[in-house]
């Protein structure tokens, strides 16, 4: 049986021990280059926690209940024992996608315990993909081949979990030692400067000179952010542009998959369509931080943080001009002053998809809170800048992503 057409071996590029060393060295180098004020005016525990969160690697966990497969007829390679060579013959294939949480790079690394027959699959963001193919396939044969591959992958991941078990503590110890060393050197330099000043030698004050140590309050983010340098009121959580673009990329990828399966998804309602996006979003961002994607009301998809929303999206089926403009109003009505990154996902069931996409691009500019755009993301997706209804000076990003479900 031909498991893969493209034979990509997992767990073969580099080794985990070298990666651990590189992660620790990278964190320490970054600490050594921090500005003076950042080092002296940030709580060392908070700063250590930030670098541990940033440089720690989470060993992947396969989401078995998220496995999906698609069946195809195609040419497959089989070994001809008579001619002793591979031949391409008509056959059937099942393309599998296995979502996972954790760091995709772990799949490249060789653990300390390994064998000479590593599993084969392709890593695409937060998915493992592979193909099981042959002249003909029975359900039992496909299941047996799938179980064999999954067992091999799990064996390697278990080896990684054992090897990485103490890494977080090693990382924390090394980072804290580097922070303490930098603080000691900087404080010693200030003491020397103070003594020179007492001897009548005035030193020119450096721009941004750190004069005091102020312990901050640390807030957890979807991606770690440097802790604050003052004890002022803790900042509200925000979603940075890179994360926002990652979310949009995942939504667009899921939308294209739904388009390809439109014969099965065309009759789904808005709520069911929306739910198809939650698995890839949560597979990428995970739920461990408590900031996973969920929904509120009928069609919202959002990342929540405590009582606030970091990202909000509306999922709608095209229903005409008035309904489209009402969707924008509905989305804006959800937002507070802190909520600045949003999306509208629009599904089309009409014949003229191109015309509807162009109509939306015209209509959106007629909205009273439209400011600028579009910034083109792809053929049917754009990003716009709006103002908040309650504060015309506050700018909001709204990405409009359109997908075609075809007609009956």
Describe what is shown at a glance:
This protein is an alpha+beta fold and 408 residues long. It has helices at 16-32, 36-40, 44-55, 139-164, 167-198, 241-260, 262-265, 270-275, 278-285, 321-334, 353-365; strands at 61-62, 68-80, 85-101, 122-124, 127-134, 293-294, 300-305, 308-317, 341-348, 370-378, 381-388, 391-404. It has two domains: 1-224, no CATH class; 241-404, no CATH class.
Can you put this structure into words, describing what you see?
With 408 residues, this protein is an alpha+beta fold. It folds into two domains: 1-224, no CATH class; 241-404, no CATH class. The chain has helices at 16-32, 36-40, 44-55, 139-164, 167-198, 241-260, 262-265, 270-275, 278-285, 321-334, 353-365, and strands at residues 61-62, 68-80, 85-101, 122-124, 127-134, 293-294, 300-305, 308-317, 341-348, 370-378, 381-388, 391-404. The strands form two sheets. It has a seven-stranded mixed β-sheet with strand order 6-7-8-9-12-11-10, sandwiched between helices. Strands 1, 2, 3, 4 and 5 form a five-stranded antiparallel β-sheet that branches. Helix 10 links the parallel strand 8 (308-317) and strand 9 (341-348). Helix 1 (16-32) runs parallel beside helix 5 (167-198). The two termini are 38 Å apart.
């Amino acid at each position: 049986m031909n498991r893969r057409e493209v034979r990509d071996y997992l767990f073969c590029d580099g080794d985990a021990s070298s990666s651990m060393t590189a992660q620790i060295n990278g964190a320490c180098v970054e600490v050594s280059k921090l500005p003076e004020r950042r080092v002296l005016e940030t709580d060392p525990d908070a700063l250590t926690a930030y670098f541990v969160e940033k440089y720690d690697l989470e060993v992947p966990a396969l989401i078995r209940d998220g496995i999906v497969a698609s069946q195809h007829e195609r040419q497959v390679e089989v070994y001809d024992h008579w001619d002793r060579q591979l031949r391409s013959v008509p056959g059937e294939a099942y393309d599998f996608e296995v979502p996972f949480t954790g760091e995709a790079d772990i799949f490249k690394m060789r653990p300390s315990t390994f064998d000479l027959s590593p599993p084969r699959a392709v890593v695409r963001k937060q998915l493992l993909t592979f193909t099981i193919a042959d002249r003909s396939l029975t359900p039992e044969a496909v299941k047996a081949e799938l179980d064999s591959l999954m067992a091999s992958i799990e064996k390697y991941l278990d080896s990684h979990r054992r090897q990485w078990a103490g890494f977080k503590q090693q990382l924390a110890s090394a980072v804290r030692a580097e922070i303490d060393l930098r603080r000691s050197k900087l404080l010693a330099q200030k003491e020397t400067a103070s003594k020179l000043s007492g001897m009548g030698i005035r030193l020119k004050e450096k721009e941004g000179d750190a004069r005091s140590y102020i312990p901050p309050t640390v807030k957890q983010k979807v991606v770690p952010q440097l802790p604050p340098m003052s004890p002022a009121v803790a900042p509200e959580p925000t979603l940075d542009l890179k994360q926002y673009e990652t979310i949009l990329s995942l939504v667009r990828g899921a939308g294209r998959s739904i388009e390809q399966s439109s014969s099965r998804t065309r009759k789904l309602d808005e709520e069911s369509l929306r739910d198809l996006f939650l698995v890839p979003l949560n597979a990428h961002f995970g739920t461990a931080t408590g900031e996973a994607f969920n929904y509120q009301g009928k069609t919202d998809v959002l990342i929540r943080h405590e009582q606030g929303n970091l990202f909000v999206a509306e999922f709608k089926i095209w229903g005409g001009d008035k309904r489209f403009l009402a969707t924008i109003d509905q989305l804006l009505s959800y937002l507070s002053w802190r909520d600045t990154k949003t999306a509208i996902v629009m599904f089309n069931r009409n014949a003229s998809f191109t015309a509807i996409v162009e109509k939306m691009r015209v209509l959106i500019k007629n909205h009273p809170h439209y400011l600028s755009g579009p910034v083109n993301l792809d053929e049917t997706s754009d990003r716009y800048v709006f103002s908040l209804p309650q504060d015309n000076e506050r700018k909001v990003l709204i990405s409009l992503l359109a997908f075609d479900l075809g007609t009956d």
